[in-house]
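Let us work through a complete example step by step.
Step 1: write down the sequence.
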Amino acid sequence: MRGRTIALFILALLILLILPAAFWRSAARTGGDAGTFARRYLAALYARDYGRIYSWLSAEDRHAKSRAEYLSENPPFSGAALDMSRRLARMIEITNVREETRGERTTVRFSFRAPDANDETVEQLVYDFDPDRLGRLSENDRRAIGRRLEAMKEQNMLAMIDGEDRLELARESGEWKIVTDWSGAIRVNFKGEVKEGLAWDFHPVKETVLAKPGETLRVIYTAKNLSAQELTGKARHLDEPKDAEKYLEIIQCFCFIRERLKPGETKELPLVFRIRGEVPKDIKEFTLDYQFYPIEKFPAS
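Step 2: predict the structure and record it as tokens.
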């Protein structure tokens, strides 16, 4: 009898040990509940861990936009910069999570509070997320920065930002996937040309991207000086349709300043933009035509 009791005790102990492992393997496969998945997504988004986010996209969205295209439009952090941004992402607080299921899809709405990565004190502590400078630090030094940030948060000295967001999810093979519906996104076309005899080769690396309202994207133009002398140029852009400026927000653009190229020099010129507001349903695409002029012949208007 005693031997049977001991055997039952050992069996019960094994069940207690095995079931949690099986549970967590299942949770890892499905991503847990939708609210938990939304927390993982927000942390990855904050950390600019776009490689991980791409793997969470729906099959239809990955078909519409390749991994290379996605990472070109959303440059990710890597190495020490990614490590540091993940440390900050762990301090994000998510509250008021609401889930609404309609058929195969679930909408998750939530409020969040996150460290302000643009705060001057934070930028100085994390070396402005410069991967080279952070990479020269030891692991102990990076941990010390993380502890300093955590202490600031506990003492309410860490600058924070508050906001709300939502996420569209669907189940695919038992796993949560993010639904962006890029197949129905707005097509943004890019053109590049030189004017008034400027001896440059100037063009966009990619001529078309798919974008949704609220999504911030980056595209790259390249410019090469084909002459034997240093040349300075300045760009302007013409948008189509004419009221496109109502819905296109240019966040970073080479057209804001003059560009100087040495003989034979090639330079990458980034453009960061966002589609804002409710775009009328009859507008299916925008075109941005960037024109570079010699600085002395740049149109006065």
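Step 3: interpret the result. The CA atoms of residues 91 and 201 lie 46 Å apart.
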